[in-house]
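Regression check, aspartic acid case 446:
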Amino acid sequence: MSVVMKFGGTSVADPDAIERLIAIVRKERAPVVVVSALAKVTDELVAVAGLAEAGEAVRAAAALQQQLDRHLAVATAVTTANREQTLAHVRAEFDELIGLVHALAVLREVSPRSLDAVLSIGEVVSSRIVAAALADHGVPAEWIDARSVLVTDAEHNGAAPDMEATRARVQASVVPHTARGGTVVLGGFVGSTGGGLTTTLGRGGSDYSAAIFGASIGAREIQIWTDVDGMLTADPRVVPKPRLVPRLTFAEASELAYFGAKVLHPSTILPAVDRNIPVRILNSRRPDNPGTLIAADSAAAGGPLAALACKRDVTVVDITSTRMLMAHGFLRRLFEVFERFKTAVDVVTTSEVSVSVTVDDTRRLDAVVENLQHFAEVSLEPEMAIICAVGENLRSDPTLFARAVTSLGCVPLRLVSQAASRRNITFVLRDGDVPQAMAQLHEAFF
Ligand code: ASP
Ligand code: MG
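Current build output:
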């Protein structure tokens, strides 16, 4: 069974990175390789679309020329026999893009559909370059256009895969190569509707592509090659020396990502979770490191907890209503206000007469408060933070909760909640207390 190996933007950023990729891919038999655009390219294409929308045709064209030059330089450096053909492909893709962007600049209009056409080029050309480079280094690699395989709905800029249709196409076009021992290279992030319109899966979507392809081929493992060693026991900007987490369950990874652990967004690996395919995070600069394995079972997490995560600068909203709280429908009415103003809440705690929630995105909080005040008293507490301690062992070892609280010593806690899953403990506290609280928790558990 093949593995899927996904390389993020920094792992294909320049010729050196691509040389490292080749050394890594070479060791696997018949892998499916999924690549992001070269580092920063998608951001720059977003900027180009912005210029087009502003009617800045000349600046947009200049920015694209720079992009073209960068890709030609990288392609030249990593290819030999396939060089001329690859440069021609890169030029052709950019010619088309330059024409498209010019038209958009004349119209001063970039629809979600047009934006996908613009953004998709990053992955199309990076994957072509990588496939050619692999082939020129003796790896039997075949480029397949991900737009012809990954079928999505028509939600441009954040399309969802049609897993059935995608699986059928992957079986028909990708699997025959891997079955013969070949390596297949595909761009991440991009797909197309059943009708053939280019779509993208949303920013950071290459991990999602890797999981979709992994599920479609029934991969043995999905490897996410990036520029860090794996998931850490805490954010290194908050805790000086966090440790690498060797293993996480899918559920632990979801809790951590939700609370800000950046490495991988678990919703993007759902197709892998559904098929029970392990996902491994690896560092392309240090390929011999074991990385972090995320799998369904909870075998040997090592320590009592898996990791800590925190979300800084959140606002606590206290909602009190003696009149309404016991009445049925109160919570519905309350959350309906948050829903109406598209404001997500993270932590929720309730008492007999009050509900407290935390909010990260405060852009529409004024409107939320005003509407809540129609039926409740509301007070806000800004500059708070959420700390989340995650571990499957919290379920089986009831003393861990007490140990966590004890380790915090005299750090004042504003809210404490333990989810029904009992896989995490969540503390809400003053943002200023985060470094101390995280240090004490980390010291106690890792
Ligand atoms: N290149 C895309 C982005 O930057 C997709 C990805 O890298 O995962 O969002
Ligand atoms: Mg990425």
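Comparison notes: The mean pLDDT is 93. The pocket of magnesium ion (ligand 2) is lined by residues 8-9, 36, 204, 206 (CB under 6 Å). No diff flagged against the previous build.
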